[in-house]
Write a structure and sequence with these properties.
InterPro entries: Cyclin-like_sf, Cyclin_PHO80-like. This protein is mostly helical and 252 residues long. Helix content is 51%, strand content 0%. It contains nine helices and no strands. The termini are far apart.
Length: 252
C-alpha cells in the first residue's frame, strides 16, 4: 500500500464533514402514515386522502398534549444594599486593632527583660500606628483585602512565635512587612521592595530581612481559607462601622 508523501492539513476541505440537514417536525408521525408518505401516489384522490389523514392525526396529537398552568411572574424584591468598607477604612481599622494590641501587651517584669526581635525598632517612631497604616495605604495602593490578610498573618505569627509581641517598638515593622507580603501574595500588581522600604521608613536591607524572617516564622504559609478571611474581615468591618478608628486618644 503506498504511503502518502504529504499529510493533508486539518484545514483542507476533505476533512470537514458535510453538515446534516435536520428535520424540523412538531410531532412524530406514526409508522402507517410514514409508509403512506413514502409510497408513490398517482391519483389525486389518494393524495387528498393522505393529507386528510395527516391533518386528523396532527389534530389528535395536539388535543392529547398535557395542559400546563400559566407561569406566575412574581416581581422580585430588591436586594438590600450592602455597604462594604473601603481600603482606606480597612487600613485605619487595622491600625486601630494593632493599637489595642499594644495597650493589651503585658509589660516586662523587670528592666532588661524586654523581648528583643528583628521587628523591634531602636527608638519609638514619631508617627502613630493608625497614621502609619493610612500612609501605607496612600502610597502602596494595594487592595482592601490585603489589610485583612495582613491581620491574619500577624495573628499567625503571634501564635507561632511566643517571643514576639505587638508593642510600640514592633507594631510599625510588623504592619509594613505583613502588608507587603499580602500585596505580593494577593494583588496582581505591586511595587518593588525599594519603593515599599522608602514609604515605610526602612532601608532596603531591613525590609528584605524582615520579609524573609516573617516568611520563615510563618513556614511560608500565606494561604487564607474563606472562613478565616470572613472572621478577620468582620472584625475590621466592625471597627469601621462603629467609627473606632477615628478616635485614637492614646496614639502618639
Amino acid at each position: 500500500m503506498p504511503v502518502p508523501s504529504k499529510l493533508s492539513s486539518p484545514d483542507s476541505r476533505s476533512c470537514i464533514p458535510k453538515p446534516r440537514r435536520a428535520r424540523c417536525t412538531s410531532w412524530a408521525r406514526p409508522r402507517c402514515l410514514q409508509r403512506a408518505l413514502t409510497t408513490k401516489l398517482t391519483t389525486k384522490e389518494e393524495r387528498d386522502e393522505r393529507d386528510e389523514l395527516e391533518q386528523q392525526l396532527q389534530q389528535r396529537y395536539l388535543q392529547n398534549l398535557p395542559q400546563h398552568e400559566p407561569l406566575l411572574l412574581v416581581k422580585p424584591e430588591p436586594c438590600p444594599k450592602v455597604e462594604r468598607s473601603g481600603g482606606a477604612q480597612l487600613a485605619a481599622a487595622l491600625g486601630h486593632v494593632l493599637l489595642r494590641m499594644v495597650s493589651m501587651a503585658s509589660p516586662p517584669n523587670r528592666p532588661g527583660q524586654e523581648r528583643i526581635s528583628c521587628f523591634q525598632s531602636v527608638k519609638l517612631p514619631e508617627v502613630g500606628i493608625t497614621s502609619y497604616a493610612t500612609r501605607l495605604h496612600r502610597f502602596f495602593r494595594c487592595s482592601g483585602e490585603c489589610y485583612v490578610l495582613a491581620l491574619v498573618y500577624i495573628d499567625r505569627l503571634l501564635k507561632r512565635q511566643q517571643d514576639i509581641a505587638v508593642t510600640e517598638l514592633t507594631c510599625h515593622r510588623l504592619l509594613a512587612t505583613s502588608v507587603v507580603l499580602s500585596a505580593k501574595f494577593l494583588d496582581d500588581r505591586y511595587y518593588s521592595n525599594a519603593f515599599y522600604a522608602k514609604v515605610g521608613g526602612l532601608t532596603l536591607t531591613e525590609l528584605n530581612g524582615l520579609e524573609k524572617r516573617f516568611l520563615l516564622m510563618l513556614d511560608w504559609r500565606l494561604h487564607v481559607r474563606a472562613e478565616e478571611y470572613t472572621l478577620y474581615h468582620d472584625l475590621l468591618d466592625t471597627v469601621v462601622s462603629r467609627g473606632l478608628y477615628r478616635d485614637q486618644p492614646s496614639e502618639k
